[in-house]
Amino acid sequence: MDIENLSVAALLKFFEQYFPLNLAERKEVAVRFTERSVKRRGYILQQGDVAKYFTFVVSGCFRQYVVDETGKEYNLQFAVENEWITDLCSFYSETASNTYIEALEPSVILQIKHDDLLFLYTHYHKFDRNFRIIVEKKYIDLQNRVMQNISITAENRYTNFMARYPNLANRLPNVHIATYLGITPEFLSKVRKKMVRPA
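Structure for Crp/Fnr family transcriptional regulator, as requested:
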């Protein structure tokens, strides 16, 4: 790919909200990232596999989830345009993942391999800082979610979800939102009806 590629242009725009990139750095992005199209319900990671890629979503929507011993699914996170997704533990430790990452819509992504990312960290320190910010934000999101699940009502969790993902309500089935919030789809429907009911 080259730096004029539309997907690469979207990624460069994302990076440059933190630090401006010079031409050499922009060219490295084009070389190190691989573009891929993913069909709806296609997987970019399955349980037991090593997460080999850090993924930037150009278009589409993904969910990361786990499955318990009874087969019940629990959504951990969603990623839409201009967001990142991977199993961070598996990616950085190069060990088997406990999660799945599935496309909920036809999607276009850019992926970078572990070794290529380490190359960017070593040779172009702006990327080290960029990805530190990305990982820190993921950690903050996770910490906030854990705190919300143990300290606030389902109604407030839903309100916070809508603030975090304002455009997802019409893109996600109720069941996916419900498992993310730790409630049943039926209870989510009650919450939604209660929130739209006139006072």
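The beta strands are 33-38, 43-45, 53-59, 62-67, 73-79, 84-85, 100-103, 107-113.
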